[in-house]
Amino acid sequence: MKALLQRVRFAKVEVDGLCVAEIEQGLLVFLGVEKDDSEEQAAKLISRLLAYRIFADDEGRMNKSVTDINGGVLLVSQFTLAADTKKGLRPGFSTAADPVRAENLYDYAVEDLSAKHANVAFGRFAADMQISLLNDGPVTFLLEA
């Protein structure tokens, strides 16, 4: 399981021209599910991203988490994060979870995140989404479970 975290000033998701989710300052998280991933890994990854210290403290150091600043978390399913890009000129998806398994684990991550953090929003699984954001820094990290 891979989570691409972007520290943002704001982010929103649109589907068919309608805003379906948005946050102010916080994390935009793209979640890629691989075929051997589990609910246990998802729970650990959610806990880790909520505690990951990438926001500035009073001295300007990355010492605060999204939880510490009461920031928003926007979770978006991102199938292409599970791509194998080690060789060739075209991504392979043999490492990605099948759609049913991926959706089940994404839904589990949504439930777990909702239980652990109050300020959350979500994209729509497998939808054609347009994402708007203002990356703050830019600050981007790839977490793997």
TrEMBL record:
**PANTHER family per the record?**
D-AMINOACYL-TRNA DEACYLASE 1, D-TYROSYL-TRNA TYR DEACYLASE
What family, per the record? Belongs to the DTD family.
UniProt keywords (A-Z) are: Cytoplasm, Hydrolase, RNA-binding, tRNA-binding
Q: Where is this motif: Gly-cisPro motif, important for rejection of L-amino acids?
A: 137-138
Q: From the Swiss-Prot or TrEMBL record, what is one GO molecular function term? A: D-aminoacyl-tRNA deacylase activity
Please tell me whether the keyword Acyltransferase is annotated for this protein: no
Query: What is the name listed in the Swiss-Prot or TrEMBL entry for this protein?
Result: D-aminoacyl-tRNA deacylase
Annotated InterPro entries: Daa-tRNA_deacyls_DTD
- Cited function: An aminoacyl-tRNA editing enzyme that deacylates mischarged D-aminoacyl-tRNAs. Also deacylates mischarged glycyl-tRNA(Ala), protecting cells against glycine mischarging by AlaRS. Acts via tRNA-based rather than protein-based catalysis; rejects L-amino acids rather than detecting D-amino acids in the active site. By recycling D-aminoacyl-tRNA to D-amino acids and free tRNA molecules, this enzyme counteracts the toxicity associated with the formation of D-aminoacyl-tRNA entities in vivo and helps enforce protein L-homochirality.
Q: How does it assemble?
A: Homodimer.
Q: Where in the cell is it found?
A: Cytoplasm
EC id? 3.1.1.96, 3.1.1.-
Instruction: Please name the top-level EC class of this enzyme.
Output: hydrolase
Main location as per UniProt: cytoplasm
Domain comment quoted from the record:
A Gly-cisPro motif from one monomer fits into the active site of the other monomer to allow specific chiral rejection of L-amino acids.
Catalytic activity, as annotated? glycyl-tRNA(Ala) + H2O = tRNA(Ala) + glycine + H(+); a D-aminoacyl-tRNA + H2O = a tRNA + a D-alpha-amino acid + H(+)
